[in-house]
Amino acid sequence: MNQNGYIGRKVRQPDLHKDAAIIILSFGTTTRGIAALALFRQRVAEVYPKRRILWAYTSAVIRRKTGDPSLHQALAQAEAENFRKVIVQPLHIFPGTEYQQIEETCSFFPGLRVFLGETLMHRWNHIEETVEILEKEFLPKELGLNLLVLHGTPLAADPVNIVYLGLDRLLGDRYPNVRTAAIEGVPDFAGLKQVLIRNRAQQRWPEIRLIPLLFMAGIHAEEDLMGDEEESWKSELLAIGFKEVSCLTTVQNGKEYFKGLGYYPEIVELYLHRLQRAVQLSELY
User: Measuring CA to CA, how many Å separate 284 from each of 8, 20, 84, 219, 227?
Assistant: First the structure.
């Protein structure tokens, strides 16, 4: 026995990882939107085959159904696995209240140096990059109206509202046949309908195309947008005189899905650029 007892013995220090672990953070889904997450998971594994990659989910409802971990649990796991640097890359579209909550959660781990990646549309040049990719999906101005669908927020004080309204203005100024509306909050769908009626848009354009600005269109597209109920956007737009209401779809492994942003290879690469920037920062600091 060591003369100084157990305290005097040399304590074995765990081997710490030099590289940062990566946590991919999503809202989560239990619907067919899972396919979009699977594609992103595959792409991240291809780009970072030697990195420890964890997944976490922000929706408490989804986590109760699936048993998937929260961001707090994923950070704790990374720390328990002897990582001292962690990169958190959210799959969120805009930086709003939920992004601020992510920042707060990351600050709960003083033993970790956490590098938080930016959202898809974190900066105005990011918005322009994304719109340029989506532009090829727009109906020509002679054929129809395009409606970009935002998730929105019920919080009037959410900082993302100013981005939503700015995007609405930007698109309205640049395209004569592109509008935006949010499933919750602003830009208001009910208000947009009144504008369309006043401008007799349904007489000018027989078709209106819905383009979800959602990583996974999932249940929002299936029910809120294209459902058969009277309160769905499709039903309400048909009721005011549009001849056809369509929503973009894609086929993956023989199955058809509503086309969220996660199905665009170019947009997946934009997310990987956000992640790459965070990786580079983690290697410098």
Answer: 37, 11, 14, 41, 49
The topology (CATH level 3) of 21-120+264-284 is: Rossmann fold (3.40.50)
Cβ(249)–Cβ(105) below 8 Å? no
Share of the chain above pLDDT 70, in %: 94
Q: What is the pTM of this model?
A: 0.92
pLDDT tens digits for range 138-158: 999 999 999 999 999 999 999
The partner residues of 152 in beta bridges, in order of sequence, read: 184
Listed in order, the ranges of the chain carrying CATH 3.40.50.1400 are 21-120+264-284, 124-263
Give residue-wise pLDDT tens across range 27-85: 987 766 788 999 999 999 999 999 999 999 999 998 998 899 999 999 999 999 999 99
* CATH architecture label of 124-263: 3-Layer(aba) Sandwich (3.40)
User: Hey, what are 83's tokens?
Assistant: 């990582």
Give dist(CA 168, CA 185) in Å, integer: 13
